[in-house]
Input
Amino acid sequence: MQDGKYVILCIDDDPDVLMSLQIILEASGYVVKKAPDARAGLQAFKDLTPDAVIIDLIMEEVDAGLDLVKELRALNNKVPLYMLSSTGDYLYTTLDANALGLAGVFQKPIKPQVLLKLLETKLKGRKPRP
Output
């Protein structure tokens, strides 16, 4: 938490996606931190202690997002992780979100009302991280 607001870390190699997430989230009272790839995202996670993380599935490598989710889980992370994908129904038939410990999966282009409702529900009653 920063200045009484939840911090959301967004990791995506598409600057337009990062900007749209930032606009949507900041307009709803969240603090947004951004990372352009999985490596920078891992470091930002360690540095920032965010309240939730949104990770693109395909970045610099095809499974970079999945690999990052696994790395974050290996750190015994309890923060809600969300996958962001443009792969459509293929993602749902090949990915077990629960087994990966994901709090949810968002489809690109992201629907602001879906994103905000899910974050509100997941973070409601959750104590913000220091």
Summary: The chain has a mean pLDDT of 85. The CA atoms of residues 12 and 32 lie 13 Å apart. The domain at 7-123 is CATH 3.40.50.2300 (Rossmann fold). The chain has one domain: 7-123.
